[in-house]
Write a structure and sequence with these properties.
The complex is a heterodimer of chains A (171) and B (557). Chain A contains five helices and seven strands, in the order H-E-E-E-H-E-H-E-H-E-E-H. A five-stranded mixed β-sheet of chain A has the order 5-4-3-6-7, covered by helices on one side. In chain A, strand 6 and strand 7 form a beta hairpin. Chain B is mainly beta. Helices cover 8% and strands 55% of the residues of chain B. In chain B, a hairpin with a 4-residue loop joins strand 19 and strand 20. The radius of gyration of chain B is 26 Å and the shape is globular. Classes of the chains: A alpha/beta (171), B mainly beta (557).
Chain lengths: 171, 557
């Protein structure tokens, strides 16, 4: 009984403290891989105080590729205007992982691309399906997310990036 | 069943206790509130629910429950290097086509882990992969009901910069229970450029790895003397120099008589080689694979996708268009296969003859999977080695796929993607339908998007599949209207117009609409679902025909 009530207290305090914290929503620290297979820890995702877009995708996911190919046409302008950086995290496994770099280069993407074949980063961020996009503000806090992609979604995303770049907050 | 539940209940309490002990250790130095304020809870939720209607025309049988549903909730708490979480799953009862073992509700996944610079420890459930997975891979595909998570202990140790050693032990998940066998594994990853100072600045990046995995399962067989411990060893290299990459892995398994190989004592082996070259506007991948008697499960009596310890990828393109992806998809033949794949992507620049005003992309892909060339030994009463196989000889074709894809933007409003594919598919082997003829199919797909303005767009897909075998010719039409960023509505019709049996020339229509906002998404659809094979990440599931209303809710937070 003692143990039970102790656990209950512990868990409820963990839960409510965590829930009441709006300011701490930083990127969870998980090991993923660079395109050459070496380890990279996601706590090192930084962009000099500028916003970061984290996008989960896969080579077998059509809407993911549509989204990233559409953004690529405007990416230079986005970077110039807001200093934003797009981090594309591929969840491809061994079957397709070798196709990631050739696809990225073949399409001329200028994004920072990482591999998450074990799904550790995907799980840490509670991603169900790809594409799934997160927006990180200049303080490294995740302030927005979006699941799925429809043609034109990139405009909403960029509006939000602009807000962050202007120092506004996102509701 | 009660026994299992009891056991689970106890293990859960134990787990909570462990979490508490680890946690209280790290709390000591600072005040409770200070530590807590760094914590964060994240998670996700999904519910898939279907109301089933009987539909004799497509062979959809009556479902006694009328409504079936699958759902889960993941909660993960992280605080610095500490993390703990669980997943609640519910199958009331599982959707048609899901493995029958999923029944009821429970918490089959829970873990706690602690991560420091030099080592990290995980207790409870975990997913892990050694190298490419030929020796060990546990993973989940929730949409298909695939989950072979370990339950046990995992330790990662980084003694030097560039060296990581992983050790693990545990049992694998089998629905709401465990597999019988105990799995132990050891793996080392060495980044040569970090380890050897002389290589630090080298343009050649070298990653070497080695693994050893063993399983224990008691021998209770009356017919044979079975090995209770079965070991598998693997070695690998991943070398990158500039635009060039080579990734190769070899694994060898000692004798492992099982239901998969009809209890022969032949050792198993697998070799996997992938190379790629890419520069701006060009990408090439060449891959080859040979696996021989390489199914490795923590219960030698299991089949299907149950309790697999290792992962042998299919070396074929993973298609996404409906007819290509769900009528004749390939899955690795664990007992023996030789496969090759070549993939090319090229961008015709703007202003060139083929590129035109806005450029054009071409993707070419060719893959083939063949049987090994084997000779039976007829030694069932002797050594039971089963067969002999020449290493380099290629046997008969299981699967072949040649496909071309062109992507072109015609104007700021119109863009299209056009696909042609030619398939050869051995139904007998891949689907286990003895005597079924090989299927030869040609497929053509036009995928065109028209953008009215920033928010409004329509996407249409017209697909044709032409074949003389199986169910004959198919056509698919899809129209999808989206109002960014929240709404979409789609209509799909698949028409089996060339079925040799005129009474089976059926339309499979389906209408759906969806709303999504931030991390939440809700989709509602009504219509018919053709019997087919649904694959995600290389794992496939056969889904029977059904008809009715389907609701799906997903949320990430």
């Amino acid at each position: 009984m003692y143990l039970k009530s102790l656990l209950l207290t512990l868990f409820s305090s963990v839960f409510f403290t965590a829930m009441s914290q709006t300011e701490n929503n930083s990127i969870p620290a998980v090991d993923i891989q660079n395109l050459n297979g070496t380890t990279f820890n996601t706590s090192d995702l930084k962009n000099d105080g500028n916003p970061i877009i984290i996008n989960f995708w896969a080579t077998w996911c059509s809407p993911c590729k549509r989204e990233l190919n559409n953004i690529t046409e405007m990416y230079d302008m986005w970077v110039e205007e807001t200093g934003v950086k797009l981090v594309a995290v591929s969840i491809d496994d061994t079957r397709n992982i070798a196709k990631v770099a050739p696809y990225v280069n073949g399409k001329g993407w200028e994004y920072d691309v990482y591999l998450d074949p074990n799904g550790d980063f995907k799980r840490a961020l509670g991603v169900n399906n790809v594409p799934h996009t997160f927006l990180v503000d200049g303080n490294g806090q995740i302030v927005w997310q979006h699941n799925s992609y429809s043609e034109g979604d990139e405009y909403e995303l960029f509006e939000l990036v602009q807000k962050l770049a202007d120092g506004e907050t996102i509701e | 069943m009660t026994h299992t539940l009891l056991r689970k209940g106890n293990s859960f309490k134990l787990f909570i206790l462990t979490v508490f002990i680890i946690f209280s250790g790290s709390v000591k130095a600072q005040s409770f509130d200070q530590v807590m304020s760094k914590g964060k809870i994240r998670g996700n939720f999904q519910l898939d629910m279907q109301y089933y209607q009987e539909d004799t025309i497509i062979g959809a049988e009556e479902v006694p429950e009328r409504i079936l549903s699958n759902g889960f909730l993941n909660l993960v708490y992280t605080n610095g290097g500490f993390s703990a979480g669980f997943r609640y799953e519910s199958y009331m009862n599982a959707l048609l086509g899901f493995p029958e073992g999923y029944q009821g509700n429970g918490i089959p996944y829970r873990y706690a882990s602690f991560d420091q610079k030099q080592f990290s420890i995980t207790v409870g459930n975990f997913y892990e992969q050694f190298g490419n997975g030929l020796a060990f891979r546990t993973y989940e595909e929730r949409g298909l009901g695939y989950d072979n998570a370990m339950d046990g202990i995992r330790i990662k140790y980084r003694p030097l910069k560039g060296v990581e050693i992983t050790g693990l032990t545990g049992k694998q998940r089998l629905f709401f229970d465990y597999g019988e066998g105990i799995v132990r594994g050891l793996d080392a990853d060495v980044y040569m450029n970090d380890l050897i100072p002389r290589l630090k600045e080298s343009k050649t990046r070298i990653l070497l790895g080695a693994s050893a995995v063993s399983k224990y399962q008691a021998d209770q067989d009356s017919r044979f003397v079975l090995p209770e411990n079965v070991a598998l060893f693997g070695g690998r290299a991943n070398i990158t120099r500039g635009r060039f990459n080579l990734n190769t892995e070899y694994a060898y398994k000692v004798n492992d008589p099982s239901a998969d190989n009809n209890f022969i004592y032949r050792p198993g082996e697998a070799l996997f080689i992938q190379t790629s070259y890419s520069q701006k506007g060009l990408g090439i991948v060449l891959a080859a694979k040979r696996n021989d008697n390489m199914s490795f499960r923590s219960d030698r009596g299991e089949s299907l996708q149950n309790l697999l310890i290792n992962f042998i990828p299919a070396l074929t393109k993973q298609h996404t268009y409906n007819l290509l992806a769900t009528l004749y998809p390939y899955a690795t033949q664990l007992n023996g296969e030789m496969a090759f794949q070549a993939d090319l992507i090229y961008k015709f620049k703007k202003g060139t003859l083929l590129g035109g005003k806005r450029g054009m992309d071409i993707q070419l892909n060719y893959s083939t999977a063949n049987n090994l060339d084997t000779t039976r030994l007829n030694d069932e009463d002797g050594k039971r080695l089963g067969y002999e196989a020449d290493y380099f000889d290629v046997g008969e074709v299981y699967f072949k796929d040649f496909n071309v894809m062109l992507t072109k933007k015609f104007s700021s409003k119109v863009k299209g993607r056009f696909t042609y594919a030619n398939l050869v598919y051995d139904q007998d082997v891949i689907e286990g339908k003895p005597g079924a003829p090989k299927i030869y199919a040609n497929i053509g797909i036009a995928d065109v998007t028209y953008k009215f303005d920033i928010r409004n767009s329509i996407r249409t897909e017209a697909q044709f599949l032409i074949t003389e075998q199986d169910q004959g010719d198919w056509a698919t039409l899809l129209i999808e209207y989206s109002y960014s960023p929240h709404w979409f509505v789609a209509f799909l019709d698949q028409y089996n117009y060339g079925n040799p049996d005129p009474s089976k020339r059926v339309h499979y229509y389906n209408g759906s609409f969806g709303y999504n906002d931030k991390g939440n998404r809700i989709t509602l659809s009504y219509g018919r679902q053709r019997a087919g094979i649904f694959c995600v990440g290389g794992v496939c599931r056969v889904v029977p025909a059904s008809s009715g209303v389907f609701l799906s809710i997903t949320s990430s937070f």
